Every structure is written in structure tokens, then in C-alpha cells.
Structure prediction request, 306 residues.
Amino acid sequence: MRKKRIAIIINPVAGGGRGRKAWDVLQAGLRALFDDIDFRISNRVGDIGDLSIDLLAAKPDYFLVIGGDGTLSEALNGFYKDDKPRVPKTQFAYFNAGCGGDFARLFPHQYVTEFLNRLIHGTSQQTNIGKIQFADKRVRYFINAASCGFSAYVAKLSENSRWLKKLGGTMNYLFHSLKGMLSYHPQKVSIRLDVQPPINAEMLLLAICNGQYFGGKMHVAPMARLDDNLLDVVMFLDFSKVAAIFKMVKIYSGSHVHEKKVHYRQAKKVEIYADSSAMLVEADGQLLGSLPATFELLPQMLKIIV
Prediction:
């Protein structure tokens, strides 16, 4: 069963070069299945969104992203405009080639033959998509998880560590978490979940999750579901630095949710204000800006082939 047209975005340096290897392996199968293949290979930071928009102008039947969580997130932001897909009929697909792979961790391990079979038959999963709006009205979409506070600070520390990324997302994030704990200080915030009264506290970290994992295998939101129309909100509040060092490791097993100062909630909308404008925000591993910000779900789900 051949399909007409597929557009592909490739990040060759994702996962320390896994992106290029994945593309090399997938090419033959894709050429056997599709009559028309149009692809772009990213060659600089920040161009994936623009390359995605360029590919979508031809209204392909499929749009395939090959790379890590950051590549997926940037491509997603090219795929969406004004809270809707630019080309509603185009089917979104993702082949993980990243060092962390936190979003892909929610699905069975990807094998090329099985993935191509799902692709050609349009066998998709439904997922919610999150939306962030900053004070300057700038909008950013995310598919896995967004966070602010310590996690975003660690993302900033680790963004240029190419040699550690080659050891895997877990080692990269863990190393910079330990390093960051020495210099990071929790800050006062006001958090509003839906229409509930605001929570005023000193915050170490807050994660707003569609998926369950972030930071390379950290099981931050073990009860999250991609298609439940809810964001899982995990708040680390009023932690001392010493307590944080000993408790943060529990995120890898998901047992942190039993800690008294970890608050686990669900909401459709989260508004966060901070005393300091320096509190960073990241989503899907990408640094995006700083608080204040509003996080919410888009009204319609995305069908994605993984």
C-alpha cells in the first residue's frame, strides 16, 4: 500500500549522532512506501520550526520528525499555528533518536520495520498538547512536559554539554542537577490551578506534565496519561537545599509523590507568578523564557504515530 507524499525533518546531531543513523536506516523503507519524499536536515540550532513550516506548505500526507524530545517540540511548534495544525489532513509521526527520549518512553521500543508498518497504516495514538503563554503574549506548545524553577535552571546548565549527552540524557541531567543544587535557591511563587485559590509558597521545582517522564528517565508524573484531557502538576514546595539533595533522587522511581512537601494535582489550566523575573521556564527540554506564564491544554488532541 503506497502513500503519495511524506515530509521529513531530521536532526542529524540528536542523541550524539543517532539522528543521522536513524535517517540512514529509515530511508530505504520510506522510499519503498512513498511516491514522493521531501526532507530537510537541520544544520543549526533553532531552524527546525522554520524548516517544518516550509515542508508543510506542500500539504503532505505525512509529516515525520526524526530526532530527540527537543526536535519533536520544535517541529510541533512549526506544525501548529493559532492552536490548530497548519494542515489538518497531515498525519504527524515521530521516530525517537534522542539521548533522553522521555516522550518515547511511554511507548513500546521503536523497531524500524514495526514503525514503518504503523506509518503506512496510519496506526496512531491520541495525545493532548499543552500550550504556554508568556507575559509578552508569546505562545509555545509542548507535548511531553513543561517545568519551571530548578529543572529549568538545570536545563540551562546542560544545554551545551555535548560530551555528557553522548553518555545519555540521564547522566547529563543528573550531573548538572548535582552541580546546580550548589548554586540554585528556591523562590517565592503564586500558583493557581484552574479556579482554585492561589498557592503561595517557596518553590524548588514545578512540573506540568502531559507525559510521565522528564530529565532523562525521571518518573516525575507517574499517573499522567496522554489522552485524559488533564495536566498533571507536580510541585516541590518549601524544600530546604539539604532535603532537596536527598529527596530529588526519588523522582527516578516515582516515589517522590509520597513526600509531604511534594504536591501532586491535576488541572486544565495553571497560572504561575514569581517574585523574581529570573525564574526560568522550559518545555520538552527547551529553554523558553521566564515567569509569569500560563499553561493549559489545547481543546483538540493530536493523532501521532510513534
Notes: The first strand starts at residue 3 and ends at 10.
